[in-house]
Design goal:
Layout lengths: L7 H8 L3 H7 L4 E4 L2 E11 L27 E6 L3 E7 L8 E11 L1 H7 L12 H8 L17 E3 L7 E4 L13 E4 L17
Antiparallel strand pairs: 1-2, 1-6, 2-5, 2-8, 3-4, 4-5, 7-8
The structure holds a DNA duplex (13 and 13 nucleotides).
DNA sequence: CGACGGATGGGCT
DNA sequence: GCCCATCCGTCGG
């Protein structure tokens, strides 16, 4: 009982659980890199072999290796050849799980974030996983960064968020659909939900 | 505004 | 080759 403020040890304990329990607990947490800090307002949970929507669905590969590692690592991947997206790995080593950082509010370094983004609209600086990665200046070589040790990327737990809403994940269809998207209610920075395209048969 | 499609490159059937 | 855990500019109502 050394204090009321969450520290690194609490973060390790927080990330130890099953990914669908951890994900909503990361809402309100603050991610920082290269002069920009973002308070998370929207996240999604991704599991292992049983989750058809997860990169880890078909077992370990070079790209998704970080998802199979210990909790607290940053899993960074390239989306659509253009966008750098980031996840926080959860659960025990060997059982893949990660929380995709979908959107947030820039709480520090707004000028820096604006210089990296095309838009100047504050609300849109990190409204979407690709935008969030761009605002933070994330790069693929940051994949595997240990957030539980001193590093250029940091994650600090926020205060407990009371009004959490949940719904289906974005951009997936069919068997991949799960209500594993979580966001803070009434937050303008939550990314716009786009329905999955219909199957053309 | 909502809908639509092009950009763009790595991963994997 | 085809499929994306997306973004943004453009076009029509």
């Amino acid at each position: 009982m050394s204090g009321t403020r969450p520290g690194p040890d609490d973060l390790a304990a927080l990330l130890a659980g099953p990914v669908e329990r951890v994900a909503p607990l990361l809402l309100g947490a603050v991610v920082s890199h290269a002069g920009v800090s973002i308070r998370l307002t929207e996240v999604e949970a991704y599991g292992g072999a049983d989750d058809a929507g997860s990169h880890a669905h078909r077992g370990p590969t070079r790209r998704n290796a970080t998802m199979f590692g210990p909790a607290g690592r940053l899993y960074v991947y390239l989306s659509y050849g253009l966008h750098v997206c980031a996840n926080v790995v959860t659960g025990p080593e060997g059982s893949p799980g990660a929380v995709l950082l979908r959107a947030g509010e820039v709480v520090a370094g707004a000028d820096e974030a604006r210089s990296r983004r095309r838009t100047g609209v504050a609300r849109d600086l990190a409204r979407g996983p690709g935008r969030l990665g761009q605002a933070l200046g994330l790069r693929l070589d940051l994949d595997g960064t240990d957030l539980l040790a001193p590093s250029t990327v940091t994650l600090q737990p926020g205060e407990l968020v009371t009004s959490v809403e949940r719904g289906p994940r974005v951009g997936l269809r069919g068997d991949a659909e799960r209500p594993w998207r979580f966001w803070i209610a009434d937050e303008p920075t939550v990314s716009a939900y786009r329905k999955a395209p219909p199957l053309g048969c």
